[in-house]
Design brief:
Radius of gyration: 16 Å
Number of helices: 6
CATH architecture: 3-Layer(aba) Sandwich
Oligomer: single chain
Number of domains: 1
CATH class: Alpha Beta
CATH topology: Rossmann fold
Shape: globular
Length: 189
């Protein structure tokens, strides 16, 4: 997470203040962190995407991959900020042409993600972006897709980390540099 300077701490606090907690969504017992309050605030949204881009500016990313759907919202402006292309990872059955896919488990079910088979060139340096990191299942599946196409993941950036869940540890176990702008513990508002 952002840390180190007063500016970073202020930015993390600002971002957290714009994220809504929605209890029992998408099912009872889940406390959903809704980043739409952040995207509705022009200054906050711009600061968040700039901070994600700045954190990975020196990583040499050649493409940004965003995970459906909120990873598109943050990934595309990060790609623009870095001057690189953007590739979507989508839910199964949403992309035309030949695709690569990975099935995985979520904290509340199972799913499949896919990417067009020609999206990542061999040896491409890829930055992965999504809105929230919880168990890491979706992000780990995206890493598998990227690597399966010959890409090298230079980092994974998130707006929110839920540090009580194993997502960051799971990705680090795959050798991925993980960064989040802010984190929420349990029932923290």
């Amino acid at each position: 997470m952002i840390s180190g300077t007063h500016r970073d701490e202020r930015l993390a606090a600002r971002i957290k203040s714009l994220i809504r907690a929605v209890p029992d969504f998408p099912m009872p017992g889940i406390r959903f962190r809704d980043v739409m309050g952040l995207t509705e605030d022009a200054a906050g949204f711009r600061a968040a995407t700039a901070a994600l881009a700045d954190r990975f500016r020196g990583a040499g990313a050649e493409v940004v991959v965003g995970i459906e759907s909120r990873g598109f919202i943050f990934g595309a402006p990060v790609a623009q900020e870095l001057g690189v292309g953007f590739v979507p990872v989508r839910k199964g059955g949403k992309l035309p042409g030949e695709v690569s896919g990975v099935d995985y488990d979520l904290e509340y079910g199972s799913a499949r993600v896919e990417m067009q088979a020609v999206a990542i060139t061999q040896g491409a340096r890829v930055l992965l972006i999504d809105d929230l990191l919880a168990t890491g299942g979706t992000a780990a599946a995206a890493v598998e897709l990227i690597r399966g196409q010959g890409g090298a993941v230079v980092g994974a950036g998130f707006v929110v980390d839920l540090p009580e869940l194993p997502g960051a540890e799971r990705l680090r176990g795959l050798g991925v540099d993980v960064f989040a702008l802010c984190g929420f513990l349990g029932d923290e508002e």
